[in-house]
């Protein structure tokens, strides 16, 4: 991991002095935070935490608006078209803000129309197998995949989702093949896995943690750079095999605004997020979600988003994936 990227994902303690300073900038009126996803997910949860934090600090209404659809591009496009005065912000994520540029043929917006402000939370996925699969380690699963190329099925929550591209990257690095079985969300994918219809999947850690604890699935590795406190005995993917030494995937979330937002607003918003993620109650909530705080300057977050965009573009290119937006 580069120094810049490490800084972008660091705990917010270093940013605390900046966050503690009084900020002179405020939005000129009621502010909305667009969520390009349905209510109830991590993107939505993070937006509502931020809105509740900003409202008393700004003494103006801060509302959350869900604009789901088309892989997050509908909500992002609405944000892009808004006036860059700080009254329209967006809580985005890895999908529409990184993966989508290479995945969709007819993207309705460009990266330069979106201004990264600050990272908020990131968290790993976890590789799990059905108990009937004769693999207790990633190396053993890799041996099975190589012995039966293109015959062992795995589930995902949908084409182009993090739960699809995480195993795609793993398979590319292992030079192995498997059968992708996409589903419409995590619940049906897990049902297929629990029934033994597919051998493995890489799902959000918190979403499948209950099945890991009950023994209905077996966890082989987390996708983050380091081990996760929720599963301290489960290795990081990069620990498991030399071929996977550079493997790292986190689903991440952050604050964005339309390009053209004044520098003073960017600095102030970045500091507000730093103050939020530094709060003990925020840290506890992140831990409950199986994630960790990611923060740095706006420039560091922008560099991180660019690196993620490039990373997934190469994975998607190698896999030959292309979808139509909308």
From TrEMBL:
Segment forming the signal sequence: 1-22
Matches recorded under InterPro entries: BUG (IPR005064), Bug_dom1 (IPR042100)
Keywords in alphabetical order: Signal
A Pfam family reported for this protein in Swiss-Prot or TrEMBL: TctC
Similarity field: Belongs to the UPF0065 (bug) family.
UniProt-recorded name of the protein: Tripartite tricarboxylate transporter substrate binding protein
Source organism (scientific name): Roseomonas nitratireducens
């Amino acid at each position: 991991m580069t120094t810049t990227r490490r800084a972008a994902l660091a705990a917010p303690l270093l940013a605390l002095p900046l966050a503690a300073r009084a900020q002179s900038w405020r939005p000129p009126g009621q502010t909305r935070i667009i969520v390009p996803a349905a209510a109830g997910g991590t993107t939505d949860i993070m937006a509502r935490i931020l809105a509740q934090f900003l409202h008393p600090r700004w003494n103006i209404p801060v509302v959350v608006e869900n604009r789901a659809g088309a892989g997050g591009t509908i909500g992002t496009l609405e944000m892009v078209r808004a006036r860059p005065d700080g009254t329209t912000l967006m809580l985005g994520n890895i999908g529409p803000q990184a993966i989508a540029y290479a995945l969709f043929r007819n993207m309705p917006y460009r990266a330069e129309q979106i201004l990264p402000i600050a990272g908020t939370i990131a968290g790993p996925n976890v590789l799990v197998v059905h108990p009937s699969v004769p693999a207790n380690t990633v190396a053993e699963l890799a041996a099975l995949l190589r012995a039966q190329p293109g015959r062992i099925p795995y589930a995902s929550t949908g084409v182009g989702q993090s739960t699809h591209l995480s195993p795609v990257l793993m398979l590319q690095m292992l030079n192995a093949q498997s059968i992708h079985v996409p589903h419409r969300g995590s619940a049906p994918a897990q049902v297929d896995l629990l029934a033994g219809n597919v051998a493995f999947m890489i799902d959000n850690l918190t979403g499948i943690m209950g099945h890991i604890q009950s023994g209905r699935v077996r966890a082989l590795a987390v996708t983050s750079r380091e081990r996760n406190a929720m599963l301290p005995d489960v290795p990081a993917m990069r620990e498991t095999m030399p071929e996977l030494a550079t493997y790292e995937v986190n689903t991440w979330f952050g604050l964005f605004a339309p390009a053209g937002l004044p520098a003073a607003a960017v600095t102030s918003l970045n500091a507000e997020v730093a103050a939020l993620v530094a709060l003990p109650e925020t840290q506890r909530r992140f831990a409950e979600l199986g994630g960790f705080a990611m923060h740095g300057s706006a420039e560091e977050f922008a560099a991180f988003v660019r690196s993620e965009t490039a990373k997934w573009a190469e994975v998607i290119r190698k896999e030959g994936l292309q979808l139509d937006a909308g």
